[in-house]
Known about the structure:
The chain is built from 8 helices and 13 strands. It has helices spanning 53-71, 103-110, 115-133, 189-192, 199-215, 229-232, 238-247, 259-266; strands spanning 7-8, 12-17, 27-31, 40-48, 81-87, 90-96, 101-102, 139-140, 149-151, 157-159, 166-167, 175-176, 179-180.
Amino acid sequence: xxxxxxxxxxxxxxxxxxxxxxxxxxxxxxxxxxxxxxxxxxxxxxxxxxxxxxxxxxxxxxxxxxxxxxxxxxxxxxxxxxxxxxxxxxxxxxxxxxxxxxxxxxxxxxxxxxxxxxxxxxxxxxxxxxxxxxxxxxxxxxxxxxxxxxxxxxxxxxxxxxxxxxxxxxxxxxxxxxxxxxxxxxxxxxxxxxxxxxxxxxxxxxxxxxxxxxxxxxxxxxxxxxxxxxxxxxxxxxxxxxxxxxxxxxxxxxxxxxxxxxxxxxx
Length: 267
C-alpha cells in the first residue's frame, strides 16, 4: 500500500487514504503536473501484481482491456480510467473520483430501500445500459450488482468496474479460461451456464439488483425462480413485483428485450 508521501508515475501525489464504508476505490490522489499545489483529484485503485509472470500478465492485460473499452465511452454515469502506472510490482489504476457510496453499502447500513427510490435508480441504470447496448458493436456489462453502483449525494448513479464487460462481436459468451464470469445471484442463468449472452443478460442483472435493494436479500443462485417480492415485503406494489419478475425470467426471450423497454415500464 502506498504512503501519503508517495508520488505515483512521477505525477500523482497521494493525498489521503479513502477507506470509507462503501468506497470501492482505495486512495485519493492529486495530479500536480501544471495544476498548482492542489491539482486535480482522482481516485486510485492499487493492485499488487503476482510474482508469477503469467498471472501478472493476465491481470495487466485485463486492466488494459478494461481501460481501452472505457476510453471508447462517453456517458456521465461511467467514470473514466485516465492512467495505468506499473511501479515496483504494484499496478495503480487512476480514474475519475466519485463521491458517494455503493448501493451494497447503503443496503447493509439501511436495509431494504423505498420502492420509488429503487425505481428512480433503475431508470438511471437502464439509461447507461441502453447506451452500452447501442454501441457498435454492442457492449454487455455482465456484472450488474449493488457493489458496482455508486450513489452520489445528488442522487445520480455511477456504474463502476468494467472488468468483465464484453463486446458482443468479440465474445458472445461471458467466460474466461472456460469459467463463467459474473457474480452468483446476480448473473443470469445463461451467463452461469457459459452460454451466449446479449443485452438481456444485463436486464436480468438489473432485475436481480432491484430484487436485492427491495427485499434486503441477495437473489438465490440455486432456485430457478426467487420468491415473489410481495411474499417478502407485502407493502410493495403489484406493478413492481411483476416488473422485477419479468426482468428475472430464466428464459431471456421472456424478459424485457432491451433496457429502454424496461425503463418505459418503470416510468
